[in-house]
Amino acid sequence: MRRFTWFNATSLSLGFAFLYIPMIILIVYSFNSSRLVTVWAGFSTRWYGELIQNEAFLDAAWVTLRVAFVSSCIATVLGTMAAYVLVRGGRFMGRTLFSGMIYAPLVMPEVITGLSLLLLFISIGLDRGVFTIILAHTTFSMCYVSVVVSSRLVSFDRSVEEAALDLGCTPFDAFKSVTLPIIAPAVISGWLLAFTLSLDDLVIASFTAGPSATTLPIKIFSSVRLGVSPEINALSTILISLVTIGVVTASLVSKRRIVQARRDEQMAEQTA
Amino acid sequence: MQAQARPAEFAPWNDPNETPLIRFDGVTKRFGNFTAIDDIDLAIHRKEFFALLGPSGCGKTTLMRMLAGFEAPTEGQITIGGKDMAGIPPNKREVNMMFQSYALFPHLTIWDNIAFGLKRSDMAKDQIAARVDEMLRLTRLERFSKRKPHQISGGQRQRVALARSLAKAPKLLLLDEPLGALDKKLRQDTQFELMDIQEKTETTFVIVTHDQEEAMTVASRVAVMDNGKIIQVDTPPRIYESPNSVYVADFIGDVNLITGTAQLGQGGAALLTWAEGQPEIIGTAGEGLSASAPATFAIRPEKVNISESRPECVNNVVRGKIHDIAYLGNISTYHVELPDGQIIKAQTANNRRLSQRMYTWEDEVYLSWTDTAGLVLAG
Ligand SMILES: Nc1ncnc2c1ncn2[C@@H]1O[C@H](COP(=O)(O)OP(=O)(O)OP(=O)(O)O)[C@@H](O)[C@H]1O
Ligand SMILES: [Mg+2]
Predict the structure, then answer these.
(1) Any bridge partners for residue B354, and if so which?
(2) Nearest CB partner across the interface for A264, out of B69, B116, B151
(3) Between residues A243 and B318, which one has the greater pLDDT?
(4) What mean pLDDT value characterizes chain A?
(5) pTM for the whole thing?
(6) CATH number of the domain located at residue range(s) B254-378 in this protein
């Protein structure tokens, strides 16, 4: 056990203060009744009410969710397939090149990714809108999924798949009934990663969004440029609470699983 | 070495009318330019318990994987039950494999693990249930059927792997170092369990092991491999008593090796000239021995007698000094140094108490053996 010292306590509180004070200020001011963001004029939920009335924001939120959901689903399917082929496909021409290339978008500056996608859409004459944002987000989040899934595939024993084949599975059946259930946690976290990446993205979306579709980050960014409004504070507070709930649930679930696994091991030892 | 408890008449490999279940004809397997299996010819018969024995990396697993269909031979042909196996994928072969790592499905219960292969055959549902329960009984796993693989012990996992590979009643069962992870006691129990199961189910077993004692215990025949080649295929007693080469003699059990030059004698005997001023050693001539060629005399330590005075009526006698004594409880091994510095091991059963031991360090003793106790092998 580490002991309590004043040094530890101070550095810990300073660190957390640095991380969380900006957010706390934002949350507090979202309940401010004044229109002026920096002047406290009493508690009110007025801005939450106005936010619900604000069609533009709601539209943008709806677009964002749709884009995030659809693109993360497609990215998960494609990314898992890519990971499977790269890890399990044996040797084929250009395999090393492909596995290197799958990492490239991770290190590529977003501006460049966005710009190149924009040029592509223009040159094939695709109208920019929800569809193009989905395409763009699928493209870049697919790499993240395939990185997460392939690290799981590499670490799991190939002979489990061979055992399935040996017991009469076709390769597809073996993938479906053995590989997929085993790598499911990695696939799910890949999906979550793709989903949050898409929710967060501002740069690529601003290149590929058209006048017909705006995502929430674009909307927030453009309205902040005209001055911070308390409505934005309210919106940000909602986002922060959603993210907090998500993170807390995820960690509770994984903690329960660890506890369960430990109990199982003890049970096995006792009966061994 | 354990004695064989098998009926003497089971020897289909000696019967020219038997067609073997498995045939390897000139099979070679290369990975890149590395030759893992080098031009192997082999026949394995129905109901055999066939053991592959050899040092690490000699190609045992590769041979098994070719039988299961995970690797294709680079050259040559493998037939199972008379059918050419080229191009037939693992799921279309009546062969099941028990993996060295067990390879259980971690997301399925023990019951579902065992039922996995049956569900992919055209067996009816209630028949599947009956078969799985039978397998659980056979491997004494009934109590654990609802658990997941990570909820049982290593030995239990190994039995699940065995039950799963047996469930489909394959023509041929491949076991790749199935007992590698078990402690000695459990290992011996399981060896007998395996032999029992093999006899009950009449399946052909091919087992890979690098434990020679295990191979000698369970197998009807043993193949000794080295560097992708099969050096000798024979029954355990013959592998032990009549190795066809110095490599096999040295690989199986403990052996004394004396190098020299061979001369052929009368009636299958051979003489070995091995040192200045020493009488020639008389032994049984090994396969392919030619006169005046370099040869090695091989004799097991338990066939070497040790005595204080020069024994009468024995041709092979050498004199030496006790260099070391290894006391192993039931037996003692005396390391005797000959005048030319060679060490010969002689083993005796300890039928006396330790305090009454006859010989001690630096004692001058005579070593002797009969004319047929040792083999003169080429090379
Ligand atoms: N996929 C592969 N690619 C390249 N070389 C391989 C491959 N599989 C096996 N080998 C090589 O072939 C040789 C034989 O391997 P194999 O696994 O059959 O050995 P083994 O006899 O089973 O050894 P062990 O007792 O250690 O399990 C080894 O030298 C190994 O490095
Ligand atoms: Mg092996």
Answers:
(1) none
(2) B151
(3) B318
(4) 87
(5) 0.78
(6) 2.40.50.140
Q: Is-same-fold flag (B12-94+170-246; B254-378)?
A: no
For chain A positions 132-161, those within 8 Å of chain B (CB to CB) are 157, 159-160
- Which backbone phi and psi does A258 adopt, to 5 degrees? -65, -45
Question: Over the stretch B35-94, which tens digit does the pLDDT of each residue have?
Answer: 999 999 999 999 999 999 999 999 999 999 999 999 999 999 999 988 999 999 999 998
- CATH number belonging to the domain at B12-94+170-246, selected among 3.40.50.300, 1.10.3720.10, 3.40.50.2300, 3.40.630.30: 3.40.50.300
The answer, yes or no, to whether any atom of ligand 1 lies below 6 A from the CB of B31, is yes
Per-residue pLDDT at B79: 94
Task: Give the residues of chain B that fall short of pLDDT 50.
Answer: 1-2
Domain ranges of chain B: 12-94+170-246, 254-378
Contact of A188 with chain B, judged by CB distance below 8 Å, is answered with no
How many C-beta atoms surround the C-beta of residue B70 within 10 A?
A: 18
Place of tokens 């053995």: A178
Chain A interface includes B76 (CB < 8 A): no
> How far apart are the C-alpha atoms of B326 and B346, rounded to whole Å?
10
ipTM confidence: 0.78
